[in-house]
Amino acid sequence: MYRRKTRLLFGSWRGVSHRWFKKRINREAIEYEKTQRDVELIHWDKEVDALKVYMAQLQEKIRIEIQAREELTITYENSLNRGVVQLNEETRSLAENPLVREISLLVA
User: Fold this and answer.
1) Residue 101: CB partners within 8 Å, gap ≥ 6?
2) Positive/negative CA dihedral, 80, 84, 89, 91
3) How far apart (Å, rounded) are the C-alpha atoms in residues 44 and 40?
4) Cα Rg for the chain, rounded, in angstroms?
5) What are phi and psi of 97, to 5 degrees?
6) Are 100 and 94 in contact (CB under 8 A)?
């Protein structure tokens, strides 16, 4: 009788402690998942911040390149215009040269 009561008592205690253990495991699992999620969020926040800085640097480089291309376009157009003016002046100078007139009349 004593053994039976002791066995029932320990069996009951085992069931109670098992339920407590399951509750504790569930609670710790939820806390662990939350901790891991927070760690991942912090990690990805850092990654996103690093990428934002990188994108800002790229935007600055693109802005500088666009400005350089615009300056190069203006320089090219000015050079081309100066070349056309120079060519027109030389052509006019040659057209006024009497020797060129004689040669052009002979060829024609």
Assistant:
1) 95
2) positive
3) 6
4) 45
5) -70, 125
6) yes
Contact 92, 86 (CB under 8 A): no
pLDDT digits (tens, 9 = 90+) for 53-93: 999 999 999 999 999 999 999 999 999 999 888 888 888 88
How much of the chain, in percent, has pLDDT values that exceed 70?
A: 90
* Torsion sign across C-alpha atoms 53, 59, 62, 64: negative
What is the Cα–Cα distance from 26 to 22, expressed in whole angstroms? Answer: 6
Closest CA to 88 of 99, 77, 76, 80: 80
Cβ contacts of 1-5, under 8 Å, gap ≥ 24: none
Nearest to 94 by CA among 33, 28, 61, 102: 102
Whole domain around residue 18: which residue ranges?
A: 2-107
> Which token pair is 41?
């969020």
Domains identified in the chain, total number:
1
**What are the backbone dihedrals phi and psi of residue 107, each rounded to the nearest 5 degrees, phi first?**
-70, -35
